[in-house]
Write a structure and sequence with these properties.
The structure holds 2 protein chains of 2 kinds.
Chain A (H helix, E strand, L loop, with lengths): L1 H28 L4 H6 L5 H11 L5 H13 L13 H36 L4 H15 L2 H15 L22 H8 L2 H37 L3 H8 L4 H38 L5 H10 L3 H29 L7
Chain B lengths: L5 H17 L5 H11 L1 H23 L38 H40 L1 H20 L2 H12 L3 H28 L2 H8 L4 H37 L12 H8 L7 H29 L6
Helix pairs in contact in B: 2-11, 3-4, 3-11, 4-5, 4-7, 4-9, 4-11, 5-7, 6-7, 7-9, 8-9, 9-10, 9-11, 10-11
The chains are: A mainly alpha, B mainly alpha.
Amino acid sequence: MLRLVVRRLLQLIPTLLGLSVLLFLWLDRLPGGPASAILGEKATEAEVIRINRALGLDQPVYVQYWRFLKRIAELDLGTSTQTGQPVWDEFVLRFPATVELALLGILIAVAVGIPLGYLAARHRGGWLDVTAVSGSLVGICIPVFFLALILKQIFAVELGIFPSYGRQDTGIDATSVTGFAVLDGVLTGEIDAAWDALMHLILPSVALASIPLAVIVRMTRASVLEVQDEDYVRTAEAKGLKRSVVRGRHVLRNAMLPVVTAVGLLTGSLLSGAVLTESVFSFGGIGSFLRTAIDGRDYPVLVGFIMFIALVYVLINLLVDVAYSLIDPRVRVY
Amino acid sequence: MSVATKSEKIQRLAELTATKETGTGASLWREAFRRLKRSKMAIIGAIIISLFVVLAIVGPYIAPHAATAQAWRGEVFPNRGEFVGPRGENWFGLDHLGRDMFSRMLIGARQTLLVGIIATMIGLVTGFLIGGISGAAATLGGDAGKRIDSVIMRFIDMLLAMPSLLLAVSIAAIMGQSLTTVMIAVGVVQIPVFARLLRGSMLAQGGADYVLAAKSLGVRKRRIVVSQIIPNSLSPVIVQATLSLATAIIEAAALSYLGLGNPDPAIPEWGVMLTQAQRFFDNAPLMALYPAVGIIITALGFTLFGEAMREALDPKLRG
């Protein structure tokens, strides 16, 4: 197990280096630049040159890349050209918001999707099965931003049950400890702040959960259907094990394998979805910030954030593989 | 064998292929087609797809009004929240600029389908080339081939490590706002998916008995790849291509929502129409619902058909 983790962590280094090279080549190709984005249309040539020199953009791209590597070695990610704040600070400010959103989203998807998929498989052909399967097919086909808009319109604007934008009401004076608004509220005992933050999370995370939910329902269903006809399930039933034991230990545990992998792979699409839901609900996470960073040609933010996202993505999939080998002793790698 | 003339060889080949076709064992594809015809999902999907394709072809010709005709401009006041809903003259009502929604939906079908098809083609063809090279190198290239395969796959992993929408947004940012941009951006995102799929499928086929047989008969490697491994690895790629048509249409809508869609008002596209309509969602929800429902139903058609194909082609379900 340890060897697997170490090997995968070592593989991260070339992947991230490669990604950073790609990013630099890409940024080099982007039309415009931070200078014209900052100055707008009134930019004079002298000012553009001055800013480019200050940012080191007058150098050829390989020199820029070399400087970037030297900075990275000192754990310095540079400064945002939009806000003037260090990239790391911007990241720490916004990352928790997206993590909260994504976590709740995947939690909803797993908590609803696995039982639903399991029940659908057990009652194959029944009304629950038909509803679950057709619902998940439709779920994949609804554009996430449209679902977010509909949810916002119905539950925030018309019914007023949930707030329609932001992470927390401005009237609430919450103490920030970790940056995770819900967790902070619980830690500091400000229950109303935690509750308010949670309410702000519900609609965006439900919208975000739609696609993972659809995928998980169908994967669980297919997987359970396949597993429950296996010989070892029949054996277990034949030797008189209790039904609940057979279902839990033999069917569900084996059926979970592909689902666990799918959950890991879904993180990527979750981040894409976050860009959309965050902008519908003006939720200040990394998704919406990245979007503005592209418009503002904020190179340090783009490089830093995307590398972090890639890092998180790889780490989550590593975690998934570890979880996988815990569930299935056959693939355990020592 | 050595004395056989060329014509004899051709004759033998003809006999061999002839027995294959008249034989009782149906080919994977023929059997899959038979099962597709029995699948309700496939039939509903096929009906939706055909309707959509017909709409895309004839839509612009049967549209009662031009896409840009603002004939009823004086009746619509977005600022005051006054819109015109469905009525005899305008079946779907008017949009915020006094244009006929029904005509724009009809005309927009073609663009929506084109974006889906071209984006998927870009992803499919490029991904096919990359995945095919990688898979061929890994199965028959020996140690050097395995290294080539591993380098290519690391590159694909890097592309996959970037959230697809951000990748698409950044490509669109490089190329500027246009319909071509949307197609390319959505297509590029699909490349790693197709590449991985074909390679994985080829690796699975690489160890098959028929490959071993071909190898021991001395068939050239290129031929084994082109005429044996690739044809047998195609089914997951074809299923994915059908499903990708749905994803591409949805992703194109998402790009429009992020402000990177085609700005030309004369070429309406459902994703762009949906994006424009969402600003007026409070007062004129129907304006957004038409393109949204159009997108959802179309995507559903491709998804249903793709899923049915996946089931029909699944060797585990053969029988």
